[in-house]
Amino acid sequence: MSIGEALPRPDGRIKVTGQAKYTADQRLDGALFVVLVGSPVPAGTIRQIDTHEAESVPGVVRVLTVDDMPRFANVTAPSAITLLPMQDTTIRHHGQAIAIVAAERLEQAEQAARLVRADIEVSPFVAQSEGAAVIATENLYAPAEFSKGDIARGSSSAAHRHEADYLQPSRHHNPMEPSAVQAVWDGDELTIFDTTQHGYNVQAVLSSAFGIRPEQVRVICHHTGGGFGCKGFVWPHELLAAAAARVLQRPIKLVLSRAQMYSMVGYQPDMRHHMLLGADADGRLSALSHDVENVTSIAEQFVEHATSASQGVYASPAIQTKQKVRHANVNHPTAMRAPWEGPGLWGLDSAIDEMAHLVGMDPLDFRLANYAETDPATGKPWSSKKLREAYAEGARLFGWYDRPREPVRDGPWLLGSGMATSSMGCFRFPSVARVRLNASGRATIETGCHDIGTGTLTIFPQIAADVLGLSLDQVSLSMGDTALPKGGPTYGSSSTMGVGASVLYAARSVRAQLAELAGVPDSQAELADGRIRRSGSDERGQSIVELMRQAGRAELRADGEFSLPGGAPFNANGEGSDVAISTFGAIFVEVAVDPELGLLRLRRAVGSYSAGRIINPRTARAQMIGGIIWGWGMAAMEGTHHEPTLGRWLSRDLAGVAVPVNADIPSDIQIHFVDEFDAHASPLGAKGIGELGATGVAAAVANAVFAATGKRVRSLPITPAKLVMEGASNA
Ligand code: MOS
Question: Is the CB of 347 within 6 Å of ligand 1?
């Protein structure tokens, strides 16, 4: 039995020794190096681009401008940005690509890029904070407005009322591997190595943009060096790179610089959560209102559905939510690890904590008093939910009810504890996988998915090994290539359910073929150690290698398909079925604050989750710890400042934008999973966990800061300036 075993990652060694080949590591014969030139201003019109000086640099082959580019047809949202640069002369944000330099060597292209002279008629621009908020109307994954019950009555008649704004800044994904493309055309056939979380999305967008069939575009991405969402969309550089290869009639290689990762791919948008809560004297919510506004690019809408948290976590007779956007001259935002509930729970669980204090209840007791027995928005029963157990075990591991109720001093530090609910909805996508069992008893899984670091390379072989009675080293996974069966995307915490289920189905079909060869009814076949026998019998069974040899079969193969109701391309939270699907948990943190210097430190954390069946406890635990670290970054460190007078990101590197490093994270992080099987979410019983751990953390930290200092910080990140307390003394 290998599902449920804490198996190590088979790809660990090649990744830490540098043998894993990422996009930029591929070598295409005769490739030109391509560098994009970004706009120096946030808004304007290009009058002319002087490429003369740039083209005189030795080795430079050509500088492409809007005049040289093919016109792209049919680029459709929501999987890609639709207003592409270099299709007209309009500049919509700082850093937008305005020219492409191609040279024999990278150094030549970089030098020439600095010599491209753009004559731009500069226009007034809308800074990130200046756009007017309007109800979102485009690219919606859920209605922009939701209402249930009577909010006005629920809040005006409430014994307790809390209303506040909670802010969070734009944040960039900062994956270790910057986005890169290598592209080569052969007639109308394009092969593209691309840094992506979903090769088939790149295939669909590029084929429609170039007016060719999807089969004429092959997208290869064997390893993805982190993504966190910024490699899920198709961004302009991918289309521009493919276009450059076509115009130049040469293979090309493009690697975005770290600075370009700030303006040429997406980021999580700056958000404001307006919360209004009403509660009765016993601490039961009577009203819950949550308005979100997020910044978006000047002419397209990206909607961060953060109000989903307030529709799905706590019981309230009246719930009202609104999604608004603020257009500005910024590059287009996108989903970032733990979209929707991740930002939403910052607003919601901060406000819930404030209300618990107003009512005079323990914050966990207050959450239990408002426990949602059914889905708050739809009233549907949950597919499975063991949040009560998760709360209880988390509280026990943390010592929540034994915590000091007053701040404790430790030298210069004030210690405080806080908690929050974690929750993530359930995104599912269709997926196909193929399993082949060869004559030597080794299996290969083929599905064009990716591993962005979450452990899919471990758990998909683990699932097939489990079904076929093989060891993990007898199963390999071929992935990251659109020439393979169409696996689901590697985002939305969806792969275990979608791709995992397709692997399960394919492996079961191969198992059925083996059972037939063995003359054993499929339902009674037991496979272990490379042998098949009738379950319950005491015979040793037959070797599957021998069985295939006798039958003259060099290979057994089968495809497995995970599909959604009605053949839908996407399903959120079990929509269209009679259950609501979601994941839950609780995060408890102890922080230390130095009130004189304003320093904030994480001392310890406990995360306890109700998230369906856990396929691999080791990779799952790593996901949750990673999520908590991600949440700490959101809480205490991260924010990309958009400078309102220059209209651009102020810092565009990892020195000017803080992210957590090892020294910021204590070793004392405990993870617990409640034993659970969710048959509705997937036939594996598993749900998604990749993003759940990141949710709730920022609120838990702010709630702990309040416990330590009595200060409510309602804007992220919680930096020293917000914590320095006047008159504080360590004496
Ligand atoms: Mo994640 S934001 O769904 O890659």
Answer: no
Active site residues: 691
Query: Which of 172, 174, 491 is the best mutation target for the ligand 1 pocket, counting ligand atoms within 8 Å of the beta carbon and taking the most?
Result: 491
Torsion over CA of 99, 104, 105 and 109, rounded to 10 degrees?
Answer: -20
pLDDT tens digits along 423-456: 999 999 999 999 999 999 999 999 999 999 999 9
Report which protein residue has its CA nearest ligand 1's atom 3: 492
Atom of ligand 1 nearest to the CA of 452: 4
Q: Give the model confidence (pLDDT) of 650-686 as tens digits.
A: 999 998 889 999 999 999 999 999 999 999 999 999 9
Instruction: For residue 728, name the pLDDT band (cuts at 50, 70, 90).
Output: low
Is the CB of 72 inside a 6 Å radius of any atom of ligand 1?
no
Spatial neighbors of 595 by CB under 8 A, at least 6 apart, are 414, 709, 723, 724, 725, 728
Q: Which amino acid is at 19?
A: Q
Residue having the nearest C-alpha atom to atom 4 of ligand 1 = 229
Cα-based distances in Å from 276 to 288, 290, 368, 399: 6, 7, 20, 31
**Which atom of ligand 1 lies at the shortest distance from residue 339's CA?**
2
User: What's the length of the chain?
Assistant: 731
Alpha-carbon gap, residue 196 to 222, rounded angstroms: 10
| Residue 730: band (very low, low, confident or very high) from pLDDT cuts 50, 70, 90 | very low
Q: Is 299 helix (H, G, I), strand (E, B) or coil?
A: coil
Tokens read off for 178: 């910057």
Could you give the CA distance from residue 137 to residue 126 in angstroms, rounded to a whole number? Answer: 20
How far apart are the C-alpha atoms of 33 and 40, rounded to whole Å?
A: 22
Q: Is 566 helix (H, G, I), strand (E, B) or coil?
A: helix
Cβ of 227 below 6 Å from ligand 1: yes
Instruction: Please report the sign of the dihedral spanned by the C-alpha atoms of residue 513, residue 518, residue 522, residue 526.
Output: negative
pLDDT on residue 74: 78
C-beta of 232 in contact with ligand 1 (< 6 A)? yes
Is any atom of ligand 1 closer than 6 Å to the C-beta of 338?
A: no
SS3 for 652-694 is CCCCCCCCCCHHHCCCCEEEEECCCCCCCCCCCCECCCCCHHH
DSSP symbols for 194-233: E--S-HHHHHHHHHHHHT--GGGEEEE-S-----TTTTTS
For residue 493, give the ligand 1 atom closest to its CA.
Answer: 3
pTM of the model: 0.97
Query: Can you tell me the distance from the alpha carbon of 699 to that of 706, in angstroms, rounded to the nearest whole number?
Result: 10
Specify whether the CB–CB gap between 275 and 347 falls below 8 A.
yes
6, exposed or middle or buried, with CB in 10 Å at 0-12, 13-18, 19+?
A: exposed
| Whether residue 492 has its Cβ less than 6 Å from ligand 1 | yes
- Radius of gyration over every alpha carbon of the chain, rounded to an integer in angstroms: 27
Among 141, 228, 689, which residue has the most ligand 1 atoms within 8 Å of its CB, making it the best to mutate? 228
Q: Is the CB of 175 under 6 A from ligand 1?
A: no
Close Cβ partners of 625 (under 8 Å, ≥ 6 residues apart): 607, 669, 671, 693
Which atom of ligand 1 is the closest one to the Cα of 228?
A: 4
Give the contacts of 607 (CB within 8 A, at least 6 positions apart).
394, 422, 585, 586, 587, 588, 624, 625, 627, 628, 669, 670, 671, 672, 693
**Coil vs helix vs strand at 628:** helix
